[in-house]
Amino acid sequence: MAFILNCFLVPIVRRRLFGPALFGSGLVLIGSMLNRIVMAANGGKMPVLPTLSKVTRYYRNDALGQGIDNVHIPMTGSTKLNVLADYIDTGFSIMSVGDLFIHAFITLIVFYTIKSVNRDKQKAKE
């Protein structure tokens, strides 16, 4: 993930997207803190509730807590802060609210890069 975020330095610097990058960095920080909070409440583990991923076969029953993935555990009634856990299931990924904040950084940079390119093209036409 760090490599992907570092790749965004090129458009941020070249297009001077410092405002959106600073705001997006705040979102990454908030998302990371939310993920750390739920993991701390559950003994360092992130609860996961697969729904659609079972249908698409993205999720494997033997993956959690069996050495394949030592970070995630199945979400149960005894896990804490389930509202912050991984339950947003897209079929190919299971995300938490914190993950959405983190991914918002990428969305912001892509959006403002496209906006900047279009603005430059519009200025070139005039």
Protein described:
- The strands form two sheets. The chain has a two-stranded parallel ribbon.
- The radius of gyration is 18 Å and the shape is elongated.
- The chain is built from five helices and four strands.
- The longest helix is centred in the last third of the chain and has 29 residues, at 97-125.
- A hairpin with a 4-residue loop joins strand 3 (88-89) and strand 4.
- It has helices at residues 2-7, 9-14, 18-41, 52-55, 97-125; strands at 46-48, 72-74, 88-89, 94-95.
- The chain is mainly alpha-helical.
What average pLDDT do the residues reach?
89
Helix content, binned percent: 40-55%
Measured distance between first and last alpha carbons: 40 Å
As a whole number of angstroms, the C-alpha radius of gyration is 18 Å
Largest sheet: 2 strands, parallel
Find the structural class using helix and strand composition: mainly alpha
Strand content: 5-15%
Strand tally is: 4
How does the overall form come out from the CA principal axes?
elongated
Task: Return the string of H and E elements.
Answer: HHHEHEEEH
DSSP helical segment count? 5
Strand order of the largest sheet: 1-2
Low-confidence stretches: none
Oligomer: single chain
